[in-house]
């Protein structure tokens, strides 16, 4: 990868296959956050029959949003990323020839999702402009992951009041009846519930455990804008069903785009 005169040189990229070759991503080699199971589980919360427009908040190189675009023929996907470098990787991902079948449905918006009011609208995040919002934010405590890699630090470290800010924006840009989907640490559940109050209801929480008998390490959550339905704790997901290290069959289907987590 090369840069023109006066431009900051981006890290070298790798091109990696996901969903068993259904789509590909351009990702920074040896720097920044590289997509994995979290992004693919997040994408599995969006049903394949989804229609309208989807915003992927904090999209990075586009992993979750492009995963959704690859299997939802009637959904336009907007990748929202504040980092100029990662937004450029998202553009490269969308323009890869391997993704040509659905690339026209994908666009990139360089914006901080914590913007509000006119600044947010001017950045391309209009009020009630989206039918689906997905988010895989930097949910680690800043002290948990100390790293000299700036791209990785931005992707992993949690700013103060992050959940309140991101879900506030989701509530503003999501249409009534639209769906919010996210992945988080279990420790963030209280903040997520508080931020959803008055904005999103009918929360469905799916705990994600490494194996049976082990504590949950993630939660998957979905909710509906304006809903008054009650909170529902769904059956757990087990990433591995034995000690051999392979994915459990259902999780393998989810992270490879062969299944999705239905709300009903």
UniProtKB/TrEMBL annotation:
<dbReference type="GO" id="GO:0032259">
    <property type="term" value="P:methylation"/>
</dbReference>
<dbReference type="InterPro" id="IPR007848">
    <property type="entry name" value="Small_mtfrase_dom"/>
</dbReference>
<dbReference type="GO" id="GO:0008757">
    <property type="term" value="F:S-adenosylmethionine-dependent methyltransferase activity"/>
</dbReference>
<keyword id="KW-0489">Methyltransferase</keyword>
<dbReference type="GO" id="GO:0003676">
    <property type="term" value="F:nucleic acid binding"/>
</dbReference>
<dbReference type="InterPro" id="IPR002052">
    <property type="entry name" value="DNA_methylase_N6_adenine_CS"/>
</dbReference>
<dbReference type="InterPro" id="IPR029063">
    <property type="entry name" value="SAM-dependent_MTases_sf"/>
</dbReference>
<keyword id="KW-0949">S-adenosyl-L-methionine</keyword>
<dbReference type="InterPro" id="IPR050210">
    <property type="entry name" value="tRNA_Adenine-N(6)_MTase"/>
</dbReference>
<dbReference type="GO" id="GO:0008170">
    <property type="term" value="F:N-methyltransferase activity"/>
</dbReference>
<feature type="domain" description="Methyltransferase small">
    <location>
        <begin position="40"/>
        <end position="192"/>
    </location>
</feature>
<keyword id="KW-0808">Transferase</keyword>
<dbReference type="Pfam" id="PF05175">
    <property type="entry name" value="MTS"/>
</dbReference>
<protein>
    <submittedName>
        <fullName>Methyltransferase</fullName>
    </submittedName>
</protein>
């Amino acid at each position: 990868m090369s840069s023109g005169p006066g431009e900051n040189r981006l890290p070298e990229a790798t091109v990696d296959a996901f969903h068993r070759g259904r789509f590909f991503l351009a990702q920074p080699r040896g720097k920044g956050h590289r997509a994995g199971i979290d992004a693919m589980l997040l994408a599995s919360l969006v049903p394949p029959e989804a229609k309208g427009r989807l915003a992927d908040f904090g999209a990075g190189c586009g992993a979750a949003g492009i995963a959704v675009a690859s299997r939802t023929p009637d959904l336009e996907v907007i990748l929202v990323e504040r980092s100029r470098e990662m937004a450029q990787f998202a553009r490269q991902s969308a323009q890869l020839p391997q993704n040509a079948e659905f690339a026209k449905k994908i666009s990139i918006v360089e914006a901080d999702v914590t913007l509000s009011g006119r600044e947010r609208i001017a950045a391309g995040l209009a009020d009630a402009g989206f039918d689906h919002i997905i988010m895989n934010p930097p949910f680690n405590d800043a002290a948990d992951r100390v790293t000299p890699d700036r791209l990785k630090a931005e992707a992993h470290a949690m700013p103060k009041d992050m959940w309140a800010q991101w879900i506030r924006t989701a509530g503003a840009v999501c249409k009534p009846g639209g769906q919010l989907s996210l992945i988080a640490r279990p420790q963030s559940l209280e903040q997520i519930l508080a931020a959803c109050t008055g904005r999103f209801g009918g929360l469905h929480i799916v705990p994600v455990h490494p194996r049976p008998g082990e504590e949950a390490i993630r939660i998957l959550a979905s909710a509906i804008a304006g809903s008054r339905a009650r909170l529902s704790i769904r059956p757990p997901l087990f990433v591995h069903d034995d000690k051999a290290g392979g994915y459990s069959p259902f999780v393998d289907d989810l992270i490879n785009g062969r299944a999705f987590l239905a709300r009903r």
